Amino acid sequence: MNKSVYINRISKFLPGEPVSNEEMEQYLGFVGGDLKSKSKAIILRNNKITNRYYAIDKSGNSTYTNAQLAAEAIKGLAKDDFKIEDIELLTCGTTSPDQLLPSHASMVHGELKSNPVEAISFSGSCCSGTNALKYAFMSVLAGFTNNAVVTGSEKLSHWMLANNFKEEAEKLKKVEGNPILGFEKDFLRWMLSDGAAAVLVTDTPNQNQLSLRIEYIDICSFANEIETCMYAGGEKSADGSLKGWAVFDQSEWTTRSIFSLKQDTRLLDDYITQVGTRTIASTFKKYNVNVNEIDWFIPHISSEYFRSRLDDQMQLNNIQIPMEKWFLNLTKVGNVGSASIFLALEELLYSGKLIKGNKIALIIPESARFSYANVLLTVC
Fold it and tell me: Which string of b and e fits 63-85 if b means at least 16 CB within 10 Å?
């Protein structure tokens, strides 16, 4: 098959004004009343995030739904040569849909009020946006559609509001005299951000501006080897198994913050860069990629803490990509989960730094149960 598929445009939507580290609890609130988090300063020092975006106001009221964030990003793709009505396929990835049903993509389509289209949702966490991109890539490559619009979007701020932990904090205060959340629940409150990105995928490149030809999208899960690391709507047992929300009594949903987003940071530190580097090495070998021909490397990392660790692991595996070829914007926009890789790629695409023939390698880890996506693009 000689047909090629291109990313012709990327659009982003970040709600409101950037929120500084000092302002975070003005939006999210203080768990346990006015008690400050004991881990916040440590986490922020390690992740080095200085700004993020929230689709809530300082009273905790929603300013955008997840579906609306995605729709706003899609609207940014519309130009004279492409209208919303021209969309032939809509694929949407997210960690944080606004509801269990209908699907996230259906809700985004409803916000757009465009023509009837195939709308496909991908769940999970950071890889869900790339899963959506792969479906779009395959659809256009196979000739089923001439174009597709892909989104990664997150509305995680409302999961992190202090009020969501109020009953658990009160219970802890009664039992232990200390309404402080466990680290696995507090950790992600200082990591995550809201926002959306949209990608236009087509069967022909741009005529008057740069396009990105998709060479491959390779995705692999290691759930067969590693237990759950990041989760919501459940609770981990001592043996590492996950108990879903349906087996808990309804009263426990709030007293144990069952629906909060949690992370087993021990597993994250042990596996995220080590296994990720395995996938980079195997993918480069599979597609016969010469690492010296990589001009730009965009790793999605949840924290700057992992930058040097990923580099060390890559060096150990003889994957030497100098740091001047790395491109990240985590510190400016925060960790936006499924949208993060697209937000970084959007910034690089319009930075003026790219020239035709450049090779761009992407790596997207998903710590939920350790999945990894590798993508190679050629600037054309």
Answer: ebbbbbbbbbbbebbbeeebeee
